[in-house]
Amino acid sequence: MNPVEIEQAISDLAEAPFDATEFPYAFLEAFGRKATEIKKLRKGDTNKSDLGGVLQRNNIHMATCAPGEVSQTLTALKNSPATIKHKAKFILATDGRTFEAEDLIGGDTVACAYKDFPDSFGIFLPLAGISTVKQIKESAFDIKATGRLNRLYVELLKDNPEWGKAERRHDMNHFMARLIFCFFAEDTDIFITEDLFTGTIDRMSSRDGANTHEVISEIFRAMNVPPTDRASANLPRWADAFPYVNGGLFSGTTEVPRFSKIAQRYLSHIGSLDWTKINPDIFGSMIQAVADEGERSVLGMHYTSVPNILKVLNPLFLDNLKATLTEAGDNTRKLLNLRNRLAKIRVFDPACGSGNFLVIAYKQLRAIEAEINRRRNEADRKTDIPLTNFRGIEIRDFSAEVARLALIIAEYQCDVTYRGQKEALAEFLPLDSQNWITCGNALRLDWLSICPPTGTGVKAKADDLLQTPLDQAQIDFENEGGETFICGNPPYKGSQSQDSEQKDELKRVFHILGANWKGFDYVSGWFLKASEYCRKVEAKFSFVSTNSICQGKAVSGLWPFVLGSDLEIFFSKRDFKWSNLATHNAGVIVSIIGVRRKERGDKRIFYESATGLEQRVVSNINAYLLGASDVYVEGRSKPLSPVTKMVFGNMPIDGGHLSFTRAEIEALSLKPHERSTYFRQLIGGAEFVRGQQRFCLWLDRNSAEEASKIDGVSERIRLVEEFRRSSSRQKTKDLSKKPYAFGWIAQSGDERVILFPRILSERREYITAGLEPAGTITTDQAYILLDAPLWNLAILSSRVHRAWIDTVCGKLKTDLRYSNTLGWNTFPVPKLTEKNRQDLTRCAEDILLAREAHFPTTIADLYDPEKMPANLRAAHDRNDETLERIYIGRRFKNDTERLEKLFDMYTKMTPKVPA
Questions:
Q1: Percentage above 90 pLDDT, the chain
Q2: CA trace torsion 412, 418, 421, 426 (10° rounding)
């Protein structure tokens, strides 16, 4: 269940007659606990309560009680030995009148009237397997409103199916935006008369809802008629009470979908909510999911947390403004200069969604301005910060409308907070009709026309005339000469998941530069467009991006075009999860990157520590987001360091016909010398990791002639020939002349082999290299070192090498995609003495012996982080210490230190060694 569904179920429970016996089970059902779990609790099989209540192990201990005994019962639950023994996370007591609960882990408490406990449902979301964060606990209203609006939306589409079709979807979404404004306006006195909107609909609509659409249509029409035209507008007396809103919100068609009796009831329920509690920071992201059928299953989880947004905005510009405010103190002249600066700042999000970044930026700037006004004794002064300085591009029309609405609501709330409700109301209506959130494709539009640097006013332009939207913002900026800060969280989409249109958009953005864009993440287009903007305008930008654009071949392909010789990365935060709230959503690993024109001054790398977000000041941040010199690691044909050459294993190109299972070999009834002569053990990445056994024919021209006399073998050779001959590739066709042999051969078969999988699990802490005896044949799903000294395995298995691979090689989804040319051949290894080699050889032997001690446990199980045996972990730790002391004489503190040392070595070594 998602938070919206849970909130609805909890609200239904609170409204139903209280049943002391059934309440604990109904409470668990509302949080989506399985029926089988609840059945066992009812029977007493799993109920561990020692107080006559219900205790589910590792979850909750709750009890109902006689009236007036709630506090005593909660104390008894807290002191219960069963609560401690069975690790209950929550305790809960209620008598149907009062409700009290406590989160024993987080410390949150609830004490309220029974009917009000749904307002605190966020505290209990772990019962549903949802990892809560502070924002969801504090946004019960936003989730409740989203759920009610979703139910209305779905119900309206039942009775108005044509409004759900593509050609009417915009009308439906615009209608919902109008409703949201009306609900907010009537609860915040914008409509002056209490319940004006909801009350008018209830009074004027028939009981069955048959004319509700007509009533709402007239209300919408009234709000588009200015006072000077009211007399001739023929408005009904009850509609004339509504103010003129303007702002384009009620212009155009006033058509409204038809309402059933059920839909009208939903409308009344929504209107009865307290819309003064709306939080525009997150509400927009939640409500936009209502209009997306594919996203409704996770309603209530669609928002980017404010702390995450501030990880972008603070280092981009807010930290500087706050520092300037601190420096200004009470100096009225400095405060005035800062206030003038605030008024000219433009914040531009070219993938703004429902406006989260813009809303947070606006509220932060208003807070700074309010403090300036307070220090200047001008607390009631009207703001100098116009909403039109907060510009966005959004491809979905409903999200664009919600973004505008969220900013309007944020402006009103800030006016109330900093100036008082009377002043806020006096200046709120009519809304400004300027359209500062553009609905369109950010990679096709000209950003300078959407967010122009001066007041010259240029129309929005697309890359070709036919793609130019007709409804773009075309207003001028009066704040000429200000700073522009570009920010946001653009869409990611790796190269394999982009559709043809998205690929074409990247081609349009990059082709003029001659960039090989085909492997780029979709977000790369935003980075290049932002860098071009910064070269023309006094601007800085920071985006949240998948970390893929700072890893692997994408770095050398993309960043020289983004940074060029004139831009630099001035802050970064690497590799953290940017996730929604459900535990089933693992989140995507992202980095935050800030770019500006080159200037003197320190750069900041942010990282998480035990005490929170910290920063490290460095002189340079490279495209790998490290405090190191600007360098792009390029693939090499041979190793940079004195290590053994690495190659792919053998490539069968056989349609699977040269490989055999043990049972298939047994079925051939071979003589012992035939089996040993014609067959070898075959091992690739999967076989090595999972301990699977596979065999293959391994023949040369002479042995193939003899082996072909065996029926089962000759049939396999014939099938290989047929497979290769039927290929559309000429090179594969040519291989049909040698159907007995692998298509590409890397080894003679008589070498000792160090191997490891080409694709490496992200979960494993180490690269799992292994040693196979002479005679083992490898596949191209593994990389191999032939007859290599064993100390090579120690290097492969080290943390320092894993850190390098994480950074310079690409990924397949979340797993590491190793590259011999990019990962091994570029890896800097210090000059090794004979003693160093002996020590590393011993470390490699210890790792192999530690694995052997757990035979037949597979590599997959041995390297499961939660199951890794202590002796194996200790062997790896000794290996890491031995190698790292060779590098710097001590252990590295962390991966950042490892990588900065490696990049420093790489920079020094590359000019001397040809690629």
A1: 62
A2: -70
